[in-house]
Amino acid sequence: MQSVCALLHISKIFEVGISGSLLEELTSLDLDIIERAGFFISVDLAYVCELVIGVIDVDRSKEKGYETIVKEGFCDELDELRQIYEGLPEFLEEVLALELARLPCMYEDKGLPSIIYLHQIGYLMCIFNEKLGEEMLETLQDYEFAFADEEGEHRRFFYHTAKTKEMDNLLGDIYHKILDMERAITRDLVSHILQFSVHVHKAVSFAAELDCILALALVAHQNNYVRPNLTAEDLLDIRSGRHVLQEMTVDTFIPNDTNITLEGRINIITGPNYSGKSIYIKQVALIVFLSHIGSYVPADAATVGLTDRIFCAMGSKFMTAEQSTFMIDLHQVGIMLRHASPRSLCLMDEFGKGTLTEDGIGLLGGTINHFVSCYDPPKVLVCTHLTEIFDNGCLLESDRIKCYTMSVLSPDKGCADVEDIVFLYRLVPGRALLSYGLHCAQLAGLPEEVLTRAALILDTLKNDNQVERLVSEDIVAQDQQYKDAVEKLLALDAQKGDLLHFFEEIFANQS
Question: Based on the domain organization, do 213 and 64 belong to the same domain?
């Protein structure tokens, strides 16, 4: 309904007229908004809107505090019922005053009785804390016990009386009478509206499309997007591209360029964790996607070749999926290899993880080589920590492969020390030498003893030495106990030895 009202408001604006500059701009964009608005915003739509507005008041429930939506003044009988219902509290107080005159004053100390109205049950006299005794009921012969509620804060006992029965006959279940009458009115309204359902559906669809266009325009204006240049050439050239969401969550976002032409179709991006690799390839895909739906894009400039599909293998897993993350990756890459065309964009983020390192290297290397061997490969962006693919001829030598890394500022480029490392989030040509995993672990808040042990193991493995077992006094003492127990067991004569004494000695030492 809000969409229909908004469209009618737009129609009035168009009737008054718009400026020549705006009309010229709309013509240059080839949106045909005015013509389409005039087609969808018809006299029938205005009639439907007036019909609904004349019957329904969506704010009435909030104002009155109960379920009611039909506008006041539409139905005299309904208004009369609602007036009675809304005046019930005062009326029940008057009836209660008459009933209290018949009850002893002793009940004032135990909680003043009341008359209440319960939906679908009717009107009842409520006595608090104590049920009426037999002697009292002989005096009040018109009191008939209905039910009790002894689970709440106060014990309550409900009775039918002559007055409550009279109100039941006079007023009945007034609340549901109101609801039934309103439902009948709304059903009749719906039946009238359905006669114009085709017009309403078309108008709402146009409103949704217009809402999307306005939303894209607003976001583009607020975030300094630029108009991309869609071209039939098979290339992708983005200057200072940004991620549409990530830039809203950080104080400073570092933009990056992307340039993929007929050469360098396959970009392999290495770098530390937390350095922005995944964000970069996602922002490229989002810019390509936004360009194709007619949106401005977050960049200083963008020339985007027509793209038929965007394939992703990003390591994502749905909670309802019955497959592992690695298996999902395999399926996604399989679809990519079978269906990607020269006009496709393929993203792979850490493909090959989740299995043995050797298997992951083989799968990733084989996938990249498949793209290299294609006559006309798609545009491919690969993020990986498996730098072993660059060794031992794992990848084919080809001009189609370009290597990039996310730059890191470190006092000593050959040092893996976790201190004084700054991620620059800037994409530069080259390969990453280190992953700086310890630095990332420190940023994540891992305990110091874990980081110290990890650094020791890393240094030992780099020097091709054997990692020594983590030794503590408790572990050494326990190992010695086990050795002593084994030696005593081997020295024990099973036939002549005292087994009871042997086990007592063993367990005494362990305790």
Answer: yes
